[in-house]
Amino acid sequence: MSDRCHPIVPQLHLVLERVDPSKNMARYYVLSLEPTLFGDCAVVRDWGRLGAPGRRRSEFFNQSADACVTLEAWLRRKCKRGYVFRS
Questions:
Q1: Which CATH class is domain 12-85?
Q2: In this structure, how many other beta carbons lie within 10 angstroms of the beta carbon of residue 73?
């Protein structure tokens, strides 16, 4: 059995925020694990200032395990920077 993403697998979608009014900071960061058209996995990252258009980057992986490792690394990195899950 292949360890690739399957289109039926639900997407993982994590929304993080970092808000500090004293620094005029209101940012968001979204991490997603999504299947591609070819059955591979993509880690999609969206970020920017709340209320404004942001940026997007995608990384593609042949194995879902590799994509999960990358997503977890980004999540740890952002939590260390003060991002928290949006309530």
A1: mainly beta
A2: 11
Q: Which residues pair with 20 in a beta bridge?
A: 25
Full-model pTM = 0.84
Structure-block tokens of residue 46 = 């969206």
Hey, what amino acid is at 74?
W
- CA atoms of 7 and 66, how far apart (whole Å): 17
Distances in whole angstroms, Cα of residue 56 to Cα of each of 23, 41, 59, 75, 86: 24, 16, 10, 16, 19
Helices (H) and strands (E) in the chain, counts: 1, 5
Q: How confident is the model at residue 10 (pLDDT cuts 50, 70, 90)?
A: low
Angle at the Cα of 19 from the Cα atoms of 14 and 22, rounded to 5 degrees = 170
Give me the residue spans of the domains in the chain.
12-85
